[in-house]
Amino acid sequence: MIRCAIVGASGYTGLELVKLLLTHPHFEIAYLFGSSEDRIERIYPALRGVFEQEILPTDIELAASCDLVFLALPHKSAMEVAKPLLELGVKVVDLSADYRLKLENYEAFYTTHTDKEHLKNAVYGLPELFRQEIHKAQLVANPGCYPTATLLALAPFAPFIERDTPLVIDAKSGVSGAGKKCKETTHFVQIDENHFAYTPITHRHSIEIKEKLEILRQEPLEVIFVPHLLPVDRGMLVDCYIQLQSALNPVELLKDFYANEPFVRIVEEPARIKNVAGTHFCDIYAQAKGKVIYLSSAIDNLLRGASSQAVANANLLMGLPEETGLPKIAYVP
After folding, report:
1. Same-domain check for residues 196 and 259
2. Helix (H) or strand (E) holding 140
3. Of the residues 66, 145, 240, 282, which is catalytic?
């Protein structure tokens, strides 16, 4: 068995990692770490009688005794833990933003980076686009949830997008995407029977989407990204509007691009959250009107947008089949 530690186990993505690793045939949870001492079954009583373990204060030496460490921490905190682990030769999957971006973009949208050495060697953990690089990595930067759903939809079209035409991305997430800590906008009376945008255009995930698309395209793009909160627990729906240099069949392009990707499904009706909630799937729908393309994609923000993608990356890091232990059955009805 491959010994794993989860740092930041008490958050939603930490919980999802626990659930996934408990049923994984090759990974075992050696340690849970957090900012304060507690027990996982006390924080999440649904785990009583299933998995009960103490959450320890973060201990680099104990974590380094594992084969693999998942970091489910906020940005800045993650690199403070990742740096000493990487120096000790431990493999790390980081779910924060700390290693996802080029230095200048990270510091413009987040904070000063304190681990520039390892940032240079981090691999962006979207397997459909960077699988071979992930295989060889020590550090994988797990993508954000919005960028995952957006990039999977847009990547096949990146070379064909009309120059000097902005991409418009209208994205919606369940409330769990805002994290466990309650805020005014996530209070029940604010989100129930409500729907609204937040940090339009300036949201931090806009630079992640822009940077990765420009890498695929090899030239600049303008991205207009507007995220919204939905009154649902989990799930994410992203609508993209793009103009191409010439007309093409978007469904054929998507099917060709993802022909060998079992966790990307090209669907015949606009993507729906319910069909992917609880799974690692990304569903993508496309429709054309001349050179204008409408795309919709849906994922589970806590799974494909975070924890199951982290497990897929961990599988690749450890030389296992990528699909090992990934959830396929949606939470329906």
Report:
1. yes
2. strand 139-141
3. 145
